[in-house]
Amino acid sequence: MEAGTEGRHSPAAALAVAPLEIERIFAAPRALVCEMWVKGENLAHWLPLAGHVLLACEGDAVVGGTRRLRLRAPIGETYGLTLVYREVAPPARLVFTHRWDGGVETTVSISFEALDSGHTRMVFRQSGFDTPESRQAHKDGWDASFGEFTDHLGRYLAADAKLAPPGDVAPLVLTIERVFDAPRELVFRVWSSPEHIVRWWGPKGYRLGHCEMEFREGGAWRFAMQPRPDYQHWIHGVYREIRPPERLAFTYINDADGQEMLVELDFLAEGQKTRLKFRQAEFMSVLERNAHNGGWTETFDIVDIYLDLLQHGRLGPSPLGWRQGDVPGVPADLR
Predict the structure, then answer these.
(1) What is the CATH number for 19?
(2) What tens digit of pLDDT does each residue of 296-334 get?
(3) Strands (DSSP E) found in the chain
(4) How far apart, in whole angstroms, are the C-alpha atoms of residue 222 and residue 13?
(5) Of 107, 131, 163, which residue sits at a domain end?
(6) Number of domains, the chain
């Protein structure tokens, strides 16, 4: 061992290396800037350095949660990054540990301040480096990534403006109408118990790995949506209004970001058919709303199939009670 290396890599040496502090102001609202860190699907657009690719991002940004990322360098080498979340308080603050495979664990804290101009001040701090060289390498990397961050925010906001609905429809509200070829008592019933929910909830390719429902006003629900066996997306809420077979309302919260929304469903009888009026609000961005629009539209396609099979006695047995998607390790959706 080279003389003196023990000191450079000791805890005392890490304390001697100054923390890395970076401040940026982004032309975007605070909730959206924070969302770029919280939601794994956004990280792929700005986190990797130029020429690098994010191959996998597993885990949610929840307190105590671990997010595992795997990236590929231009020369083809792959490497991993592990984040463990200590504080998740969107849209104000995030704290997590940060460790490259084989590297030293550092701590990252980020605060998001809303400015009067509608902009956001982001204050980033990373501490625990073992050498000044490591600190400088991280500074160079973050500076490059934050440049991509700015570009991605610009593209995101431009898409928001392009996709925003015309007229008096609120841009952060999702409304959907569907007509189902089934009586409204039955359509309402399939929302009322795990026996039915686990057979249709979620877009194509997902299943419920956990379904907990206390179907009464004031009762809680909690689901884990799984696109594959090794990943769960947790959502939860509380039933606010239950008036069978006419109306159902409940709060809807993604564990990953804590954004509370209200889902309202009105079931209107049209002969032996049912018109469902669905409303969900309010979202953090128009793109988030449009992502849910795609998810609910696919889900309602599954509901349509499920109701047909249920009414005609063609619903096959399911020991686990799950309808599942065409993802490796998950059997096919209702077909």
Answers:
(1) 3.30.530.20
(2) 988 999 999 889 988 887 776 554 444 444 333 334 444
(3) 20-26, 53-58, 66-72, 78-89, 93-100, 106-114, 120-127, 173-180, 207-213, 220-228, 231-243, 247-254, 260-270, 273-281
(4) 46
(5) 163
(6) 2
